[in-house]
Design goal:
Blueprint lengths: L1 E4 L1 H5 L1 H11 L3 E5 L2 E6 L2 H25 L7 H16 L7
Length: 96
């Protein structure tokens, strides 16, 4: 986790952008010593958003399973998840 003062984004934009891209992690910006903003590379943001959406869908499937509703077999689900993971790893815009 990288933490920088908010003034650094004005003074060192390219350095902050390079840091975000090279690490794939967000940079936390502080203002007056308090957390203020988070800056991250667009690819890392997109990847996180896809993973959050996948988690939401998995939670919904688990809730359906617990409620006794029919769903996918474990083999079908494994193939589906593998295709999503492959798409994320290869930078493809995979629709969930």
């Amino acid at each position: 986790m990288q933490i920088k003062p908010s003034a650094s984004i004005r003074q060192n934009y390219n350095e902050i952008a390079d840091l975000c891209k090279s690490t794939g992690e967000p940079v936390y910006l502080t203002k007056n010593g308090e957390g203020d903003l988070v800056v991250m590379d667009i690819e890392a943001f997109t990847r996180r958003e896809k993973m959050l959406k996948l988690r939401e869908e998995l939670l919904a499937v688990e809730e359906d399973r617990l409620a006794g509703r029919l769903g996918y077999t474990s083999d079908e689900l494994e193939g589906y998840l593998d295709s999503i993971i492959d798409g994320v790893e290869n930078g493809k815009d995979t629709q969930l």
